[in-house]
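Handout, tutorial session.
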Amino acid sequence: MKIPNSSGGLPGPQILPLATHQKSLKDLISGNRPNLRCYELLRAHLHSHPELSQQESATAAKVAAHLRGLKAYTVFERIGGHGIAAVFKNGPGQTVALRADMDALPVEERTGLPFASKVTMRDYDGIVKPVMHACGHDIHITCLLAAAELLLKIRAAWRGTLILIFQPDEERGGGAQRMVDDGLYDRVPLPDIVLGQHVMSMRSGKLGSRSGIMLAASDSLKITLFGRGGHASMPNRTIDPVVLASSTVLRLQTIVSRETDPSDMAILSCTSIQAGGTENIISSEAELKVNIRTIHGKTRSQVLAAVRRIVKAECDASGTEQEPLIESTSSFPTTVNSEEVTETLQKMFGDYFGEDFDSDLPRVNGSEDFSTLATSIGKPCSFWMIGGTDPATFDENKGNPEKIPSNHSPFFAPIMQPTIRIGTDAMAVAAMTFLRQARA
């Protein structure tokens, strides 16, 4: 997978005639696409060796070694933890950043793939958990590395500076900001545009985007309710946190159904309740985990305030002797695609991918911290989705989302091809949209 070199670097670019520079982007990319079989093997390796957020050391080392093997990129490591950035300067022009995330999830894989993960790691709370690339970040890494090689091979057709960002800790929402805070943009030039993509359960071979709000904001909370423990035969001497937690969960569900504007989007899910450990003991505390999705700042503030109000009121109603503890465990911004950048990109995607590209993809209620890499420096960004579901499986189930495994499912298994080819091409087309320059 190394690019041929001499004298310690890549051979000098051939000065192509103007007609060659102006030939279709599809011909340019298809004629120079790297050996994707090598990248399929890389994806299999990454998939079978996943690492949790803030623990992506081996993944980062693999990425850095691959980039150095291309013998053209200046590589920076350990940014904001295990973050990687690479720069290739190719003359005057715009500076474009392409981003992929690297972390995996605490999910036990059930895909049946020959390269399925059997890894376990200690999670954020110190508990040993199975680990899986259940959100497709192995695909993201693979596509960006393949695009990095492809863009080197066609560098005679573009001018500018290319930045590659491999971000840790996306799943917990802190990786992008941590890279910025740790001096990412002191190491690499400020990009004019930041671009990224995500594999979804759409039909493999398809992709899409939209201007404006692309992804929802997200807030995750850990809520600890303090009761008074005791013997199960003497509940009158206790303050039962299980009953308190149960009433709290039910009341929290009324925030969306009875407090937020029905024309706005808000989702509140209680995803975990933990209390006690045996049948004859009433526990002294219970722990809830809550996830909230919104798209507008006013609604976001309203829902968070309502959660705090309801939790406190339920504790007061139960006569608890200790205030509840409400902790933020992750927070993601709303991802807003720049109208100007996205419309320019959509035209190129439409020309390149034809009917396989959807320029009005429905908003996704999942969340990403990708946009922080742009908004933190006042620059525009655009984010799009690519499909990963086996076309045969997708068609057999008529695209029914209830029958097709989605992101974060233990059965989520993006097919190798055409997923990697589409993801690689999309990254290259996106970069070339803003870097390509004809010359005599």
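The second record follows below. Compare its token runs with those of the first.
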Amino acid sequence: MIGGVIDDLSQRFQLITMHNMLADMSQPFQLGPMHSVVDSLSQHFQLDNVHNLMHDPNVFTHLCAFALGVLVCYLRYANVCTLRSHPKTDPSQEHSTELLNQTQIEENYTSDTWQRQAYDALATTLLARDRIFPCIYASKGFKAQELSYLFLPSSNLLLHRTLAATARALISYQARARTLGPHTSLVIFAPPPTQPLSVAAYHTRFWAFLRALHKLDPAPWPADVPTDMRSERWCFCFNGTPGFVGVMTPAHSQRLSRHAPTLCLVYQPRFLFDNLFRTEKSRLAAAATVRGLIDKYDLLPRSPDISHYSQPGTTETKQYFLLDENEPAGCGYETLGG
């Protein structure tokens, strides 16, 4: 109806400007065309003052309708400009472009990109036959193409776009993790830093990153997981899902099981462990196998911080980021939000 009024009045008052303004909604919004419309209307009626308008109810009625049409045009134009400046994106599409599988990486990244180099280095590590990587479940997941991958947009872990990309990837991955296979993980690579960092520097940045990521958590913290990071039952939770995060860095030179050519975070929901190790016997057997391989793989004795989740006297904060020496790592915080 409004469109009809605009067309009718535009023809009656020969306001070509209005038709021009409506003709191309893709053009950037400018106030100029509207001023022209108002000027044309004022000249047509010779509205020197408001009394002329009030004495002609017919003109007043049409002018009100016309003004409403102009307002609609303004809102439509403003909306176009807003969409062009801040385009809407389908969250599912956003996820699909960031969360990658093995085939997508191999088809879309060439060997000269840092993304492909980080991926190839991981593949070499997981597939090596002469030196078996201690986490045999990660190797099984890679061979079965059950792993998902995220390449962060920056080595600065505290940038909002880096944190937002991680948050989106976690939510997307959690939604499909149960369908990917029993040995799935989300592998997160950061670009190489502009200058080399020490293990201590990576350690500090990792915990600052996890705390900043916690601020983007869309769901309440699970009621059955303590927020006190000193508790043996604490673990990192996001989107209501408890999980484990293992860190690998370029700075690790002795603890080779935690070495990667660029910062690499490996995330696993805790329900994966519950499914893999349904009995105490299976859990102990798996731990013994992994620890035996660690003893052969690393260039220093196994870290005393490696333990079982919820075992009294332990904490997950010491296991996420193992130092390159047998000293307690910890994180320096009591809560992620504190």
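Points raised in discussion: The first strand starts at residue 148 and ends at 151.
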